Amino acid sequence: MSEYRGYEGDSLEFLKNNQVIVGDSVKILSDITYSGIIMPRYEHSDDKHIVLKLKSGYNVGLEIVKIKRVEKIQSSEKIVDESEKINKIEGLPKILLLSTGGTIASKVDYRTGAVTPVLTAEELNSSVPELSKIANIDAEVLLSEYSENIMPENWLDIAKKISSYSNSDYLGIIVAHGTDTMHYTSSFLSFALAGFPIPIVLVGSQRSSDRASSDAALNLIGATKFITKSKAKGVYIVMHNDENDNTVACHIGTRVRKNHTSKRGAFQTVGDDPAFIIAEEKIQKNMSKEFYKTQEFQPKINLDTKIALVKYYPGYDPELIEHIIDRGYKGIIFEGTGLGHVGRVTYDSIKKANEKGMFLGMTSQCIDGRVRMTVYESGRDLLNLGIVPLENMISEVALVKAMWALGNTQNIEDVKEIMLDNIASEMSI
């Protein structure tokens, strides 16, 4: 039953006896007095606690045997937000928002207590009303997944959907996306849609919109301002610049990583300042070159996932490389130490992979800097074994680029040429 979602046994009886359900606003007297909304329980949880979402946005578990009194303040049916119809303002630019299921611009569904994604332009307007003053936004749900569940086949769907709007009257396209794998998606879109005529901006939030510290609204507003004011072609990620609410950073989609698990300013451009800094009234441009090498849009929406990312470490078992070879993989991106090294224990396996015609690329585990495999003898040995140094390309970006390259050609020499071609600012050279 959805009104008791996740509750069973003693906790279910507790809710029934106190005549409250999931989504009700209550005041509970226990060791102290708590006020909040009764939330669903995780399906594998015990039956000795109920979960309450406090006004601060945080959830607490309350042991039912310690609860002295429950007072219902408001039922779930009475506090459901009604979406207001919006009148689009003539003369404002049009922006398309595609949702892939991240927490950005999500809201609390008080009928269930769960955080759900905003699905319509009306809901979006209700959640972030400032947007309607900046642009007329059309919203569309493409998929609904946590970002760790977004797979390469989803990248293809997102790219095809965006490509279909290449001749539209939209000024730009926003993709709402979970943060954990956002830079993988932005990398694929950068290569598959090189030369796309309008900006593509991926936006996420580290904290959902029902929390007082949420970054969802400001990130979305920042992305909208960036599109309307900069009109810069390319694929970007827009997130908080730091823990403050003063600025939002706009990162090149192939030069960015999520470098913190939970900070609002978790995303950082590797080796440089963010491409743009978005403040209240102005946008500071830091990038000096064009995002794309080509200005002609020629979509190549293909990929081959038979690429492995290998992080070398002391004690690495070269049989793992043998397994990759035996599984029919077509390439390996090595994340080597320092300037681009792996131990000689792997050399025989690397030689075998090269003889099999696999693409072998080298990136570095270091956060910043360039692969230079001519400095030391070990690096030169690896060059002779067929490994291609990939400049200062981020390892995850190199993985995605290799998938894309092999999806468009099976010729290993062509793949090598593509991997060294700076298509979408993936190498800061």
Keywords:
single chain, 429 residues, alpha/beta, SH3 type barrels, Rossmann fold, 3 domains, eight-stranded mixed sheet, five-stranded antiparallel sheet, 10 helices, 24% helix, globular, Glutamyl-tRNA(Gln) amidotransferase subunit D
Describe this structure in words.
- It is an enzyme of class 6 (ligase).
- InterPro entries: AsnA_fam (IPR006033), Asp/glu_Ase-like_sf (IPR036152), Asparaginase/glutaminase-like (IPR006034), Asparaginase/glutaminase_AS1 (IPR020827), Asparaginase/glutaminase_AS2 (IPR027475), Asparaginase_C (IPR040919), GatD (IPR011878), GatD_N (IPR040918).
- With 429 residues, this protein is of the alpha/beta class.
- The protein has helices spanning 9-17, 121-127, 152-163, 182-192, 216-230, 319-326, 347-355, 377-384, 395-408, 412-419; strands at 25-29, 33-39, 49-54, 59-63, 69-74, 94-99, 107-109, 114-116, 136-141, 172-176, 200-203, 235-240, 248-252, 256-258, 267-269, 276-278, 283-285, 307-311, 331-336, 359-364, 388-389.
- The strands form five sheets. The protein has an eight-stranded mixed beta sheet, with helices on both faces. It has a five-stranded antiparallel beta sheet with strand order 4-3-2-1-5, with no helix packed on it. It has a four-stranded parallel beta sheet with strand order 18-19-20-21, sandwiched between helices.
- It is globular, with a radius of gyration of 25 Å.
- The model is unreliable at 78-84 (pLDDT under 50).
